[in-house]
Amino acid sequence: MGAYLSSPNCEKNTTTGSSQSPVNGTTLEWSATDMQGWRKSMEDAHITKTDLGDGNMCFAVFDGHGGSGVARFCEKHMVDVLREQEVYKGGDIGKALKETFHGLDDMIDSSEYREEIGRLGAEKKELVGEGGKGSEGEDADGEKMRPSEAIELFQKLLSMSRNGGKEEGGDDTKPKEDSASKAVETSSAETTPTVGRQRVLSTSVSTVDPRTGKQQCLLPDHPVHAGCTSVVAVVKGKEITVANAGDSRAVLRRKDSVFPLSYDHKPASEIESERIKKAGGFVNQFGRVNGNLNLSRSIGDLKYKQNIEVKREEQMITAEPDLITTTLEDGDEFIIIGCDGIWDCLTNEEACDFVSSRIETMKVSDIVEECLNTIVSEDPRATQGIGGDNMTLVVVDLKAGLREKNLGGGAGEGAKGGEDE
């Protein structure tokens, strides 16, 4: 079944913990669960630390692609890199998070960490069954193609065959670039291994093939192919700062309303596509940068961060996070952080309602596990990929100490595992 298993791996890795709530001074409880699901490997990672050594807390989710190495590298090193920032020591959490995201990029680019990234990726790799890089359901670079994209591609090709090579509704006799053509028309510059990030001009980033009229990526490759979207929440006293690069997401249940703590970055959005084009790249009709990545911000993906003419935050794929900072209020209930495998299935409101309807009577860990069981697809082909991705979900109950639950046992530290180290 291409990029999917014949049946989902629903085994869950759940950890729980507790601390003092910054909202009311009672108990805060959290739970984090990850599940491989239908994917042939688990590429997510996360952080749940309720004390960074200075009383600050950090909760984060990293959604890996091209392997789990970069996601697990961020899981291992992000907190240390954050604490080393001078601006962090000075109290500017937002600026420190930005410097941390880019600092991790620099570390990933360094040959010093190359072996570690490879080892971390290999430790988490859990391939099952046949298929692999370049197999059905993946593009030439091993990026996941969702069934909905495959269906759309098939319909386009079928329509074009009926119209003598023309796209339905279009005048161009040459089809636009798609993931299938990308698999057989990868430029020689992409397949030539290099030592590290090359320095190229925007005019050498991509080109149009005169034979087909299709845009092609000309970027030299990088030894580290992997990357990860990153959403990181740091709680300092009653202030929470969320840094987001990509389409993982965080949301706060504020009394009876939903307060977004991040917004997704998609290549097709106006702000993202403009930056990509200015850096010399392009977004194809499937919303993929240079015909490959279906995301526009991430840590890693260094192949797309080589244009010498633009700043780090202006690269076609950038680690530059957007920031949202807010003061936690007495009526705030809980925080939800998840990878896009969660948010493909649930809106912010649906996720908050799911937790809210259970949090007065259930352990947080049971809520998180039930949520993953509820949204995993019975057949990702039938749901066009929805519910077929890796899933990582973190819920932080800010008012746990005020809830009167008859649970038959505590949900405190170590109930299903300890705090991440």
From TrEMBL:
GO terms for molecular function: metal ion binding; protein serine/threonine phosphatase activity. PANTHER family: PROTEIN PHOSPHATASE 1G, PROTEIN PHOSPHATASE 2C. Residues 1-25, 124-146, 162-197 are annotated as: Disordered. PROSITE patterns: PPM_2 (PS51746). Its EC number is 3.1.3.16. Residues 29-398 form the PPM-type phosphatase domain. The keyword Magnesium applies. It catalyses: O-phospho-L-threonyl-[protein] + H2O = L-threonyl-[protein] + phosphate; O-phospho-L-seryl-[protein] + H2O = L-seryl-[protein] + phosphate. It is an enzyme of class 3 (hydrolase). This is protein-serine/threonine phosphatase. SMART domains: PP2Cc. Belongs to the PP2C family. The keyword Metal-binding applies. Residues 164-180 have a biased composition (Basic and acidic residues). Residues 184-197 have a biased composition (Polar residues). InterPro entries: PP2C, PPM-type-like_dom_sf, PPM-type_phosphatase-like_dom. It holds the Pfam family PP2C. Its cofactor is Mn(2+).
